[in-house]
Amino acid sequence: MTDIEIIDLIPESIADYGVCGYKDLKKNLELRRKIDWFKEYYPKGLRTKIIFSKEGGYQGMIEYIPGKYAHRPVNAEGYMFIHCIFVGFKKEFKGKGYASSLIEECIKDSKEANMQGVAVVTRNGSFMAKKDIFLKKGFILVDEARPDFELLVLKFNQEAPDPKFKNMSLDVEKYAEGLTIIRSVQCPYSVKNVDAILETARNKLKMKTSLIDIKDSDEAQHTPCAFGTFCIIYNGKVISHHPISNTRFENIMKKMIK
Fold first, then answer.
1. What is the per-residue pLDDT for 171?
2. Residue 253 — φ and ψ, nearest 5°?
3. Distance CA 161, CA 172 (A)
4. Category of 128 on φ-ψ map: left (φ > 0), alpha (ψ -120 to 50) or beta
5. Is there a contact between 73 and 222 (Cβ–Cβ < 8 Å)?
6. What is the reported pTM?
7. Where does residue 110 rank: exposed (0-12), middle (13-18), buried (19+ CB within 10 A)?
8. With contact defined as beta carbons under 8 Å apart, do 48 and 9 qualify?
9. Stretch 107-130: mean pLDDT, rounded?
């Protein structure tokens, strides 16, 4: 395909392209919240670059930000931190090297910003990229977090300290009673299904519930889950490390409260 281009989104243009499949400002609360968040962090170094095709439209993206403002529970100050990357709403856009090109864009920007390197959290489960593509680009594994999160880094300065996961066990103890959902607008999928889950928990399962909307990067760095921007906790135990459907939530709870 020859009509592919990488577009660097800016506050004035992000609404024209949408985010993560959300395009309708009037319909999608997720999109409106994400755009407001983007405009807040753009001056702090947040960048979103998209793969755009004249035929296929929006077909991929990478989002990265200086580690000081990372929305994950990591110590990564001095590094550029990749929040997310994906390519291919349509299968014909997968396996073409576009994800590699997006990572190269991040590496280039990180060097120009005099960062120590680039860091990213990967996992084998849902909602995050697997580590394989980063290993091919020279990243190495420097830390791990349960159940399947891995922190990788590509260093420009070999003398710089490694980024690390923060101690998340201390934070989960705050939520020892009932159901707590923690979310951030950094991930637009954190809005979907939450109201239904809370209604099920309150009215069907008779649980005490709490919803916490993360206000900033500091709060995101002190969540009890390596995903950072979404977490469901029941009686002090993380039961979902990423957004899930109400049906999935009910199935999890059936097994827990037998």
1. 67
2. -70, -35
3. 27
4. beta
5. yes
6. 0.94
7. buried
8. yes
9. 95
